[in-house]
Amino acid sequence: MARAAQALTQRVLAWSANIPHPVITMLVGGGNNGGDALTAAPLIQAALPHALVRCYLLKPRPDDDPLMQSLRQANIFVANAEDDADKRVLRNAVASSTLIVDALFGIGVTLPLRQEAVRVLRTVRQMLNERRRMHAKDYLLDPTQPAPIPHAPPIPVLAVDLPSGLDADTGAADPHTLSADETVTFICPKRGLFLFEGAQHVGKLTLANCGFAPETLAPLAAETDTLLDGHHVRAMLPPRPLNSHKGTFGKLLVIGGSAAYYGAVALACRAAYRVGTGFVTLASLPQVIHALAPHLPEVTWHALGAVQDTTLKPDVLPDLLPVLARYDALLVGCGMSHTPATQAFLHALLTQHDAPLPPLVLDADALNALSALDNWWELLPPQTILTPHAAEIARLAQVSTADALADRWAFVREKAKAWQAVTLFKGAHTLIAQPDGSVSVSPFKTDALAKAGTGDALAGIIAGLRAQALSAAQAAQAGVYLHGFAAVIAAKAQSSRAVLASEVIDALGATLLALEAS
Question: Rounded to two decimals, what is the model's pTM?
Fold first, then answer.
């Protein structure tokens, strides 16, 4: 509890750093979260002598409680919800605050919330919303600017371990859950923080391990699921020796494109180069190559089929198979289109036995083609990487998209084991499951990736890392992290709604620089 309180104190100090006289209201429950907040309150008051720190208790505590004694010694105001029948004290406290600390409920919450907890959270939300609406009633307007000057700034919320009302395992959220601007969670990340609808209430996520090694805690000793972070992803990146050449950093062959889809393979090739791949070749239709060649000077080309062809067909394999051995990784599917011909092409590629395929990444239309084949997973080489979004993984599993989304975590774990492939479940907080059933989760959720072409960029990133001799799991994990981080960086320069897939690729340089400098 002491270490959790210290971590909470650090985050409160960060939120209050530029405020001359901070006013901090702590909503305190009866469990460990409440204990963390009560332990932190005197520390915060001591660190901020000009601050006003107040505690609002969901349930009263005995006078001889050591935590209550510490509050009295620090002259911290305490109010009890049961003594505040009309919630006037709570309303005034929230209205005058510069920060709300939400420490009502943690991992032990039972949904739905009941009685006094609902009244407290409802009151806090009403007051926060009223603050947000204040500028609509009384504001200054600069007509050259897009928004009025607010009468009062919004009040941020810092959640302790979890936003109150969020289920730590399922991500379910009570209707009265308080949305946080930041959640500081202790010891380890909780699965519910990354599952919707609860994930929308988390805000920025900060992890404080509080000095515990996960293997020393019995419930975590057997846990294999992980949260991706920059420190571990940086360690996955291949070294860059100074006496290197393009062959040092892998050769990638990208197969895809069609008369209807030129851009997808272009994005994949550019993304692969941006993550350090030494040599990228695009094998595609002549018309695709003729259209893209002036725009991709770094890419080399291998034409497949006749000039009049609009999709790849099985009859190109005699020309394709002899070159496969030259490459360290193979990406198939971007912009390939979904036709009987491309389905037959993929089947023929996977069932040819003249030589083993390079390490394989299957994306987009390759996944759609797979879904039409019986027992398709039996055709995959070991350590294949599959990169589906929700609709694609549902088609692969022959279930509805709703069924696939009902429990993303369990679903992708089950399918990766059944298919014996490294399997993504793309979306906000993308999941990466390995054939042994372990799952990694991306820390990123951003609408900057809700744009056509970003999936092709991700496929190119992953395939490029695979060509650089990362394992299938490492390439998928590092690729997902770099992709999400790049989207966040791209969105900092403009509205996230304006970000293009090509701009995510362009931001990979800054992304790698930030990782390498950390």
Answer: 0.93
